[in-house]
Amino acid sequence: MPQAVIARERKNRLRRDPAGRRRIPFPNGRTRCNDSPAAGPRIDPATSVSARSLAAVGRLIEGRSLTDAPLDPSTGSGRLWKRLFARKSVALVQSQFQGEELHRHLGPLNLTSLGVGCIIGAGIFVITGQAAAAHAGPAIVLSFIIAGFVCAFAGLCYAELASVLPVSGSAYTYAYTVLGEIIAWVMGLLLVLEYGLAASTVAVGWSGYVVSFLADFGVHIPPELAAPTGSAVTLADGTTTTAIANLPALLGVAGVTGLLVLGVSESARANNFFVVLKVAVLVAFIVIGFFYVDRANWTPFIPPHQGGDEFGLQGVFRAASIIFFAYVGFEAVSTAAAEAKNPQRDLPIGIIGSLGISTALYMLTALVLTGIVPFTLLAVPDPMATAVDAIGLGWFSFFIKAGAILGLSSVMLVLLYGQTRIFYTMGKDGLLPPLFSRLHSRRKTPWMNTVIVGGAVAAAAATTPIKVLGDLVSLGTLAAFAMVCISVMYLRKSHPELHRPFKVPFYPLTPILGVLTCGFLIIQMPIHNFLLIGSYLVVGLGVYFLYGLRNSRISRDV
């Protein structure tokens, strides 16, 4: 194969005309003088067919795959297949950090705190009641244990990839480097579910707490303006009507979007404040709420199976697949690999420690929640507000609801920020239009990107039931985590020589268990979720083939 390419290259090599001027061949065999203005637009030799062929020859001589070479998607099905799986080279990605060594100052306590701060705030305030009411009852605590174990496997795999490729883009960049462009695109679609739809889900929960908080002060938002479009709501007189939209959720997302457009971001001090606030709310709820628990509400602990995924062990597993949403954000620990003092020791402590602390808080909160209020009454977007209202302590209710509103506001901000930065990276790679990577001239924020993402998230929050949103977030996140585990195994085989500051313990058992456990929770989802995800991926792949494939910059960046 190299000889054939070299022969073709010799045939089309650069020539000089009798006047000594440099001539460049066109793909159709015609030539022109490089310095002749009348010959038409100037061709850059670096982007010519000749130069690209030489680049391919060089890669073959060096033993590298043509998959990594710049390819033209219009040159046949074989090369199109290679083009779909074109990868960023590991050396290129790592070079982004060469000469910019990050200060290694994070110890195990810092990493654990970072993880707890990222995990707590979304699922426990929002999704727990839904999963307990419809699937697990008081046994929701077992569902948290199952979901925590799955996250531990995936988290360790994240940590190894982050130590090798400590770059922005997280799982999207990992997939682009290890598995290829089309897989990276699919990962980007899944991350829209993990971040974008997660922000919508949090906004719906935020709306529930705001409505309950305002009602305590005599301000009542009409039910038809605080529920997803088309859902049936009960009015004060007992009659039912159809909801128009969840207006508070829409306004909440709009407010956070405005802050991001203006360039407002959380400082370390503000972030620490929100972490302390969220943990304080949960601890106060556990400690004070414990004295109002009616143990009769815990019987039976695992309600009898009622068919399908309603209660019984099937319900516990189904609930685990739903409340997996509560652990979204823990992978932020793995992205700090480049700043850890001792990655091999500190990253496992940070990941397992933050997951352990969060799981313990989740279990205790769920026990108190289902002990104060019968689990059948918790199918609401603000379950903790329902519980504190049942207690009847006005000051305590104010503290819990205000803390939940502030905590969820920070979570919305972080999730929307993450989604816009993922799209920013994809825009820089040419997979999305340039407007997604265009910065505001004065504020230096991707403002058009932020407005588009904010509008889509607000629309989903205003019109979609929280149960559907939570399911889609968990399904997308589980699929993304499984791909990360696969990436670790693939990179170990394809690049065994790479320096890995952190290695997954008990390899290959850990990534294999990560894939299997993620797959197990995925199959607990109802079939209609797969139809929704399938339709979404088909549309997304259509966008890739119509735009991303033709405009990707990998041919110039690799």
UniProtKB/TrEMBL annotation:
Keywords: Membrane, Transmembrane, Transmembrane helix, Transport
Pfam families the UniProt entry points to: AA_permease_2
Membrane topology term: Multi-pass membrane protein
Main location class: membrane
Gene3D superfamilies in the cross-refs: Amino acid/polyamine transporter I
Sequence intervals crossing the membrane: 111-133, 139-159, 171-193, 243-262, 274-293, 313-337, 349-373, 393-418, 447-466, 472-492, 504-523, 529-547
Highest taxon of source: Bacteria
One term under GO cellular component: membrane
Any one GO molecular-function label of the UniProt entry: amino acid transmembrane transporter activity
Region (Disordered): 13-45
Subcellular location: Membrane
Protein's name in the database: Amino acid permease
Taxonomic source organism: Marinicauda algicola
